[in-house]
Design a protein that fits this description.
Arc Repressor Mutant, subunit A, six-stranded mixed β-sheet, 21 strands, five-stranded antiparallel β-sheet, 18 helices
């Protein structure tokens, strides 16, 4: 038997089982009801959401009879009513016993389909009324099945120890129900709670028209004097509970920031994200590709610096960021959500979702594959240019942590996508001078993201339909701005250090240099490598910067 035939029979079997379960549910819940009430309830179970006129047409009952039955079923809490007047509709209220393993998936308030699971198997089927684009890896017209949770959903869930805290004997799909603040505009509603779901997306403004309001402004260093009204066990992740719905490895807390009282506090309706400094410094010692332990102090300042530089000097879309003094010598990092406004969510996906790759494999891809998908997903020439510019900027600062989940696509309406505002942007090269330049290498020829040359970026630009001349023009501006303006940020950091010393340990026991020196070393080494690897010559900057007086 072929695999396709086996899968087809498996899908048919699942579909028949779902029908039998649906009919058994209807039968079980029709006990103690009149014949008319049973008939109407069975219609609602089958259609899930329906109107009075549809019930009259299907059943042949008189309209007054149907209205009387619907009123009684509402009183009995068998159905729920939505809307008023001609827009009024009815839907089934499920109990916990009806569908313990079925989740209704919504995107931007629209019902997409159903996810059901149990005994190590996951299935997904689009709703018949859903007419918008497919989720990557999930096709319409069939029941998709998998032995693991589909990557489109799995990538929403925090990773590593953060995931362990959420699971605690739950199925991984059950965790989706807990995610109120995962990225994008997906909502996961247990079927028995479907009647409670009230979408609020009707008045959402187009993201492009409100992006400045969402993103906000800030300078560097933006040290804010606030009270962090969050317990130490949450900040230090010493408990067995998780406090952020956003994916990733690093400890996070979903928060709001009251600028009147200058208080940062945990919130389920978070507009901000806090990345707290972990008091247990051992958590900052992570092994690199060679198994060597690396120390990452002041990572909040690192991210704040490179995000602000990208925002204010290079013109990228970047949300508000700030640093907050922690109780010891380090800092917390605060950033604004770029996908939230007035309680409403804006849809976006990371490229692990787009490429249908699980989060554990976010580094196990190649730059060519990423850019092929960027070309397919992003809708405008400008957004594609933004993507290659972001990749080049990440190269300049040695963003070795740039993987598939650290770059995304944001929906701006009518199935159009642009590059998301930047996030999770740090320079690993500040701590590890011989780190990879990016998180993903090249596939053909096989090449790690280290000591790339202009030809590597030309290859990626070509995937986006961007000519060598057009890319070089943008890369020239980025390079000049980086060489000219970045020393000013180093100077600002040195001024900051006069009041707030930022000593970096050489080991856990001994003192070392100021953090600004690490930043400056990275900058100097990068400028030297730009000349050595031919970037300055290719960009016609060699005369201007070839003799630049930089010393290690």
């Amino acid at each position: 038997m072929s695999l396709n035939v086996a899968n087809s029979r498996y899908n048919i079997k699942n579909y028949l089982i779902s029908i039998v379960l649906s009919l058994s549910v209807a039968k079980r819940n029709s006990m103690n009801l009149s014949n008319a009430q049973k008939t109407v309830l069975e219609v609602i179970v089958k259609k899930e959401t329906t109107t009075t006129s549809e019930i009259v047409e299907i059943t042949g009952l008189e309209k007054r009879t149907v209205q009387r039955v619907l009123k009684k079923l509402v009183e009995l809490k068998r159905i729920d009513v939505n809307g008023v007047g001609r827009s009024r509709s009815y839907q089934r209220i499920y109990t916990q016993g009806d569908a313990t393993s079925k989740i209704i998936v919504f995107s931007s308030g629209k019902k997409v389909g159903e996810l059901w699971f149990g005994e190590g198997s996951y299935s997904f089927k689009y709703d018949d009324t859903y007419t918008l684009e497919e989720f990557e890896g999930l096709s319409k017209g069939v029941i998709s099945t998998s032995s693991t949770l589909f990557p489109y959903f799995e990538n929403l869930i925090p990773e590593y120890t953060r995931r362990d805290r959420l699971l605690q004997d739950k199925d991984i799909a059950d965790v989706l129900i807990l995610l109120n603040n995962s990225h994008g505009a997906l909502d996961f509603i247990p079927r028995e709670n479907l009647f409670k779901y009230k979408p609020r997306y009707g008045k959402r403004e187009n993201w492009l028209t409100v992006k400045n309001k969402i993103l906000g402004t800030n300078d560097f260093p933006n040290l804010i004097d606030v009270k962090v009204d969050i317990s130490d066990d949450i900040l230090e992740a010493t408990g067995n509970t998780e406090h952020s719905d956003l994916s990733g490895y690093q400890t996070k807390v979903d928060v709001n920031f009251d600028k009147d009282s200058m208080v940062v506090y945990e919130s389920k309706e978070a507009k901000y994200l806090l990345k707290p400094m972990n008091k247990a410094k051992s958590s900052y010692f992570n092994a690199d590709e060679n198994g060597k332990k690396r120390y990452y102090p002041y990572i909040a300042i690192n991210e704040h610096l490179f995000m602000t530089f990208a925002k204010n000097e290079l013109g990228f879309d970047v949300p508000y960021t700030a640093i907050i003094k922690a109780k010891d010598t380090d800092y917390h990092y605060l950033t604004k959500r770029f996908d939230r406004l007035n309680g409403l969510k804006y849809a976006h996906v990371d490229f692990a979702q787009v490429m249908n790759i699980s989060s554990e494999n976010k580094y196990k891809s190649y730059s060519e594959d990423l850019f092929l998908h960027i070309n397919q997903k992003l809708s405008t020439p400008q957004s594609k240019m933004d993507a290659i510019k972001f990749y080049y900027y990440s190269y300049l600062i040695k963003h070795a942590d740039l993987h598939l989940k650290n770059i995304g696509a944001l929906e701006i309406g009518n199935k159009k996508y642009i590059l998301t505002p930047l996030y999770d942007l740090i320079s690993v090269g500040v701590y590890n001078g011989d780190s990879l330049d990016l998180g993903l290498g090249m596939k053909t020829p096989l090449k790690k993201a280290k000591n790339w040359k202009m030809e590597d970026f030309h290859k990626l630009a070509n995937f986006l339909g961007i000519s060598t001349l057009a890319f070089n023009k943008e890369a020239r501006v980025l390079t000049k701005t980086f060489i000219n303006e970045f020393p000013k940020y180093i100077s600002k950091l040195k001024v900051f250090e006069k009041k707030q010393p930022l000593l970096v340990q050489k080991t856990r026991e001994t003192s070392g240099v100021q953090f600004s020196q690490r930043i400056e070393n990275m900058y100097i080494e990068r400028v030297i490598s730009l000349k050595k690897l031919g970037f300055l010559k290719e960009l016609k900057l060699e005369k201007e910067y070839g003799l630049l007086n930089v010393q290690k």
